[in-house]
């Protein structure tokens, strides 16, 4: 919810982040979410993917339009945020491959495995939000970060449900069940594991020898 609020604030002020990913999301000791690296993100262009070495991490969170080399917009940030939510819910990325280019091709042409297939405790409601946010076509995603936030609000604390207007063959959506407490417990455990892994990964990353 806080990530959506941060994106909403940025978008309202004419800023598209273009590089939403866990590496750019910080959480304070009091649980406040901070989205960082706006300056670096704004410096990115359609040529960025060419520099695979420096964009290895980001390509896993690229929207299909960014992977094609098109400019990013509000829906691009929503796609990337949905990939982050997918990773929190399942413990893994939706698309992986041996090279950044291969990952980018999957972002463009492959559908992600439904989160509930990986983690059965992911509710239909949460899954619908994730998959809507990760739609290949920008117009089929949430129209704004505020809309995505509103879809998530009823699920906060395990109550409520979400009825997505997912665009399919006949243009209709399906009704979803309430988010179960066990589902939230699984998400919290998954988030803790990701946080712990990121902590030790950061320690290793920043441990370098001094050089002249």
Summarize the structure.
The chain contains nine helices and two strands.
Give structural attributes.
single chain, 212 residues, mainly alpha, two-stranded antiparallel ribbon, 9 helices, 2 strands
Radius of gyration: 17 Å
Main sheet, how many strands, which sense, barrel?
Answer: 2 strands, antiparallel
Number of helices: 9
Average pLDDT level:
81
Low-confidence stretches: 43-57, 166-172
Q: How many distinct beta strands?
A: 2
CA-based shape? globular
**Strand percent estimate:** under 5%
Structural class call reads mainly alpha
Q: H/E order of the elements?
A: HEEHHHHHHHH
C-alpha termini separation = 45 Å
Strands ordered across the widest β-sheet: 1-2
Estimate percent helicity: 40-55%
Detailed description of the structure:
The protein is built from nine helices and two strands, in the order αββαααααααα. It is mainly α. Helix 1 runs antiparallel to helix 4, helix 1 runs antiparallel to helix 8 and helix 4 runs antiparallel to helix 7 (124-133).
SSE arrangement:
Blueprint: H1 2-12, E1 25-27, E2 33-35, H2 38-43, H3 64-67, H4 74-90, H5 100-109, H6 115-118, H7 124-133, H8 145-152, H9 181-206
Antiparallel strand pairs: 1-2
Helix pairs in contact: 1-4, 1-8, 4-7
């Amino acid at each position: 919810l806080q990530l959506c609020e941060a994106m909403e604030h940025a978008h309202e002020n004419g800023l598209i982040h273009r590089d939403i990913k866990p590496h750019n999301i910080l959480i304070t000791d009091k649980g406040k979410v901070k989205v960082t690296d706006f300056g670096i993100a704004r410096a990115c262009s359609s040529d960025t993917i060419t520099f695979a070495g420096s964009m290895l991490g980001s390509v896993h969170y690229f929207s299909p339009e960014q992977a094609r080399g098109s400019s990013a917009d509000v829906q691009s940030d929503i796609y990337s945020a949905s990939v982050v939510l997918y990773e929190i819910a399942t413990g893994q990325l939706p698309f992986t491959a041996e090279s950044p280019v291969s990952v980018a091709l999957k972002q463009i042409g492959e559908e992600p495995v439904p989160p509930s297939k990986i983690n059965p405790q992911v509710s239909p409601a949460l899954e619908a939000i994730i998959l809507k946010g990760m739609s290949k076509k920008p117009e089929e995603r949430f129209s704004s970060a505020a809309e995505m936030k509103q879809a998530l609000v009823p699920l906060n604390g395990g109550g409520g449900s979400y009825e997505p207007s997912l665009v399919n063959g006949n243009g209709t959506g399906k009704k979803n069940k309430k988010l179960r407490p066990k589902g939230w417990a699984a998400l919290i455990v998954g988030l803790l594991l990701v946080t712990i892994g990121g902590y030790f990964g950061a320690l290793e990353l920043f441990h370098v020898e001094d050089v002249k």
